[in-house]
């Protein structure tokens, strides 16, 4: 059996919507773009939404819109996809890493205040794997120190923290969602900035569109901008997907429940922990941990690699999630990071595996993944 790591949930509704767009003259900057922005803003409970071509672009737009630049610092997590730190470097500011909670993989709020300096301008928490960080505590810290909170919600569309949707203005000044094919909903490639601040929305919209002003006058550019626009085909796909958002999240929840039921019985597997404060989990990926009982770092990494190799050899898609950002080659070179700087992040980096996960994963596929995983662990000696 071949079980891919991920697969988008596309139906005839999405295909029909795309076909409609292709029959119109509007393949860019058309009515579906505005409709998609309005749907996301309404769903999250924000006043403004600005569509762009990726979550990475959206994070860059917010960093720039809040005036973060050279010599400024942004506190964030080293346990994430690299874009959440790269977006800070784009503006020649400095990412200041804070280690994470072992159970959730999210930034540890108890470590944040010790990292604040006179150069700190923002906190950028990441909702790892779809689970919102402790956003109320983080916002409280930010308010006490006059900092901006930019929430990387690229993995958490539809999740809720204490009854409030991820990306909502209760906890963050601005947030970004991503719509890559393995996300809860997809536009192929795409992202969305959300905010309640009209000036931030205006700046993001302008910079997204080559720096044009609000009037959108052709070849009239008020500021430095970028070609970060979302095309009309992507927006139409997003509109169709948003019409099914609750259905999709419910399907992902059922798959996660099947995995928990099956994998929690396998010795050597640690299933994902979801905090009681997360009142709805939308499940971006399903990440397990292995070799957690080992104390030797090399042994942990060895077991994880052997398990992944066995899974791959037997048709089960898998990936390490995540490789710590501070141990990426150019971060080591630029900042002098080394192993041991962020021990919890490094522990998660050595022991975590993303296994196949998408809305339409079947019971038969879940059982097969579990059987192969159990064999892999026996062979690896965990």
UniProtKB/TrEMBL annotation:
The active site is at residue 183. InterPro entries: DegT/StrS_aminotransferase (IPR000653), PyrdxlP-dep_Trfase (IPR015424), PyrdxlP-dep_Trfase_major (IPR015421), PyrdxlP-dep_Trfase_small (IPR015422). Keywords: Aminotransferase, Pyridoxal phosphate, Transferase. CDD domains: AHBA_syn. GO terms for molecular function: pyridoxal phosphate binding; transaminase activity. GO terms for biological process: polysaccharide biosynthetic process. The modification N6-(pyridoxal phosphate)lysine is found at residue 183. Belongs to the DegT/DnrJ/EryC1 family. This is DegT/DnrJ/EryC1/StrS family aminotransferase. The lineage of its organism: Bacteria, Bacillati, Bacillota, Candidatus Fermentithermobacillia, Candidatus Fermentithermobacillales.
């Amino acid at each position: 059996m071949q079980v891919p790591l991920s697969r988008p949930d596309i139906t005839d509704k999405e295909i029909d919507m795309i076909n409609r767009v292709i029959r119109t003259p509007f393949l860019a900057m058309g009515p579906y773009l505005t409709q998609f922005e309005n749907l996301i803003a309404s769903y999250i409970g924000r006043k403004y939404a600005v569509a762009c071509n990726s979550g990475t672009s959206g994070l860059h737009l917010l960093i720039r819109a809040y005036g973060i630049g050279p010599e400024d610092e942004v506190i964030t997590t080293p346990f994430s996809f690299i874009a959440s730190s790269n977006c800070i470097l784009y503006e020649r500011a400095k990412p200041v890493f804070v280690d994470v909670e072992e159970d959730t993989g999210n930034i540890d709020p108890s470590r944040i205040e010790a990292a604040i300096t006179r150069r700190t301008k923002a906190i950028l928490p990441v909702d790892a794997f779809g689970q919102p960080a402790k956003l109320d505590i983080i916002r409280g810290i930010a308010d006490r120190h006059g900092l901006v909170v930019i929430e990387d919600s690229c993995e958490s569309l539809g999740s809720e923290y204490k009854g409030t949707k991820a990306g909502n203005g209760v906890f963050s000044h601005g947030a970004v969602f991503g719509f890559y094919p393995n996300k809860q909903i997809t536009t192929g490639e795409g992202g969305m900035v959300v905010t309640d601040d009209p000036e931030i929305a205006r700046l993001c919209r302008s910079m997204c569109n080559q720096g044009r002003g609000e009037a959108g006058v052709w070849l009239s550019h008020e500021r430095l901008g970028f070609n970060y626009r979302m095309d009309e085909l992507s927006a139409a796909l997003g509109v169709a997907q948003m019409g099914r958002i609750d259905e999709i999240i419910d399907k992902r929840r059922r798959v996660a429940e099947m995995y928990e039921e099956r994998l929690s019985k396998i010795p050597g597997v640690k299933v994902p922990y979801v905090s009681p404060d997360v009142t709805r989990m939308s499940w971006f990926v399903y990440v397990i941990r292995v070799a957690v009982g080992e104390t030797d770092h090399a042994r942990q990494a060895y077991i994880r690699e052997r398990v992944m190799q066995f899974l791959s050899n037997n048709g089960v898609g898998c990936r390490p999630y995540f490789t710590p950002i501070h141990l990426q080659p150019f971060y080591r070179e630029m900042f002098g990071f080394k192993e041991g700087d962020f021990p919890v992040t490094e522990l998660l980096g050595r022991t975590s595996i993303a296994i196949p996960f998408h809305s339409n994963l079947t019971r038969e596929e879940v059982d097969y993944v579990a059987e192969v995983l159990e064999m892999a662990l026996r062979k690896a000696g965990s």
